[in-house]
Design a protein that fits this description.
Blueprint: H1 6-9, H2 12-29, H3 42-55, H4 61-66, H5 71-75, H6 82-99, H7 103-120
Bound molecules: protoporphyrin IX containing FE.
Protoporphyrin IX containing FE (HEM) binds at residues 33, 36-38, 43-44, 47-48, 51, 66, 71, 74-75, 78, 80, 84-85, 88, 113, 116-117, 120.
């Protein structure tokens, strides 16, 4: 029986490009996240596009170009708190809505990304912060 990946189901490369653009437009406006990123987003956009494509069942673009993802290690040079993870996920949820990804696919993707985002947390937050 033929199986369809989530990547194909939501429209493949063009959907993932739109998603990544919409996501970094939001990151660029987010006062907590913006300072962690370099002045221009071109490189990180390309890498995120490769990564998300691969994560959701598309071609293994990230591993072909960057090797093993080792995402937690690659994020260690940035102090990431639970608050950062929440902002990241909110930007992503809004970007998915703007891109027109259907709710069921959106939920499945956010569940996966939510776990990864929490795994990136490497710094305790302020006192009293969730
Ligand atoms: C939890 C909050 C997160 C923060 C604050 C954050 C922040 C960052 C920053 C600052 C960079 C580097 C930009 C540069 O090149 O200078 C980066 C790279 C990257 N992030 Fe995140 N990130 C977060 C979560 C995630 C999650 C959940 C994913 C997985 C979908 C992810 C995937 C990536 C990828 C693939 C790269 C490029 C890695 C490379 O090849 O160098 N990040 N992130």
């Amino acid at each position: 029986m033929a199986t369809t990946t989530l990547y194909e189901a939501i429209g493949g490369a063009s959907t993932f490009r739109k998603l990544v653009d919409a996501f970094y437009d939001r990151v660029a406006q987010d006062e907590l996240l913006r300072p962690l990123f370099p002045p221009t987003f071109d490189e990180v956009k390309a890498r995120q596009y490769w990564f998300l494509t691969q994560l959701f069942g598309g071609p293994r673009l990230y591993t072909e170009r960057r090797g093993h993802p080792m995402l937690r290690a690659r994020h260690l040079r940035f102090p990431i708190t639970v608050r950062h993870a929440k902002h990241w996920l909110r930007c992503m949820a809004e970007a998915m809505e703007e891109t027109g990804i259907p709710p069921a696919a959106r939920d499945a993707m956010l569940e996966r990304l939510g776990a990864i985002a929490l795994h990136m947390v490497n710094t305790p937050g302020e006192e009293g912060e969730a």
